[in-house]
């Protein structure tokens, strides 16, 4: 395996034949619940949780156990970016009862302030001017219009001219973005996207979710949804993730998500990834949990070589 952080500039290192292709035709690694590498056990349980869980979580032990199920990534944004991750699946929330409009990442428990995460990402982009990232804000909790306006103004404040304005998906190639010095595509699953030129609608980033603990069902689902992928006009996310049921969580509380679901099934998931091909009806963005456990990002990035072979033949 290559040295640490060796995928920090992978987009900039692609051959010219690939930097001329639409980003929707390239294979791009992403992370699921991307911010959840740090969750605060002391914070209240998030409004994304069912009432039963909220009641249980009043017990501090339950919160510690929830942490085992809430953390789906062990790497910080910077570490994920250095390993090659370029798509981030983001869920955000206000803290009910807190004064002001502050917004936090959330997955069961509250994580860091969105502002801090965006700053961390922006610093990476400053040092890696050829790299382009997708930020997919797809779940909002306890947020009114003022919260949304606050969040969008933070996004604008952090990234400024790096934000890529809405455009025909097929026009968005690395060459196009490099020329404009744009590095960030924001997908915003809320009607507010209409009011800002740099907010792409959520329907340009479909991410069908299998919602299963069964790895064979997951792989079948990924195949089916790829086959139904729109030929033009959207990106596409293959969510190579297994979702714990409440029953599974109860049975395996102490062992946590990583130990029960993920470790056992990663080899099969990775084999599926390695058998894919990017292109018009092929894979585009592939997301996974615990992206550091196997060489996930490198395996996805390597798929782009198949496009070169295709070009030669």
Automatic annotation (TrEMBL):
SUPFAM superfamilies associated with the record: PLC-like phosphodiesterases
Molecular function terms, GO-annotated: phosphoric diester hydrolase activity
Limits of the Phosphatidylinositol-specific phospholipase C X domain: 21-189
Keywords, ordered alphabetically: Hydrolase, Lipid degradation, Lipid metabolism, Transducer
GO BP: any one term: lipid catabolic process
SMART domains cross-referenced by the UniProt entry: PLCXc (SM00148)
InterPro entries linked: PI-PLC_domain, PLC-like_Pdiesterase_TIM-brl, PLCXD1/2/3, PLipase_C_PInositol-sp_X_dom
Name of this chain's protein: PI-PLC X domain-containing protein 2
Organism: Eublepharis macularius
